[in-house]
Design brief:
By secondary structure, the chain is mostly helical. The chain is built from twelve helices and no strands. α2 runs antiparallel to α11. It is globular.
Length: about 180
């Protein structure tokens, strides 16, 4: 009980927001680059059923995406903060966070997002096309959960803050440059 109260006192909304923004943007950027290159998103997004729904990967606004992920980072932090005792004050809190992200944010969205139960049931999009993105988004959710959990629970690891901070600045810089140069 004392350890849980200690965790709750140490985690501020501002601190959690900054860490969540940084970790989410970094994992989003890295997994997006990997998916773009290895999951053939250029081809998948050009398919007749997706080209009307998804912007093409060479659209300038797509390049801007990583620099706008701070918005989602804040939203995630707003959801994580009231659950901080459960997510960061327990040994397997990262797993709880990952399960929440996967079940509520990927599989069970209220919107008809590709890969969700809604799209599987109610659209004509092929199942293989929908689940092809699962590797990227489930892995990104896992990395977000593990890295954020570790960073929040080990604030003394200054090297982690520096590494993530540098990657964050590079991701945002490359994102803005990609948009401007497109």
């Amino acid at each position: 009980m004392e350890e849980e109260l200690q965790t709750e006192k140490q985690i501020t909304f501002l601190g959690l927001s900054i860490k969540t923004i940084v970790v989410h943007t970094v994992t989003y950027f890295i997994m997006g680059l990997l998916a773009l290159n290895f999951l053939e998103y250029k081809t998948a997004f050009a398919e007749p059923i997706t080209r009307e729904y998804m912007r093409q990967v060479d659209d300038p606004i797509v390049a801007l995406g990583p620099s706008l992920q701070f918005i989602r980072g804040i939203l995630f932090a707003m959801a994580f903060y009231p659950l901080r005792e459960i997510l960061f004050g327990r040994r397997n809190g990262w797993m709880i966070m990952w399960l929440l992200l996967v079940t509520l944010g990927i599989l069970s969205t209220f919107a008809a997002a590709p890969g969700s139960v809604e799209v599987l049931l109610y659209t004509k999009m092929s199942v293989s096309l929908q689940i092809s993105g699962w590797l990227e988004i489930m892995m990104q959710a896992l990395l977000l959960s593990v890295i954020l959990y570790y960073w929040v629970n080990h604030p003394e690891k200054k090297w982690l803050a520096w590494v993530l901070g540098i990657i964050y600045v590079l991701a945002v810089t490359f994102s803005i440059m990609g948009f401007v140069l497109a």
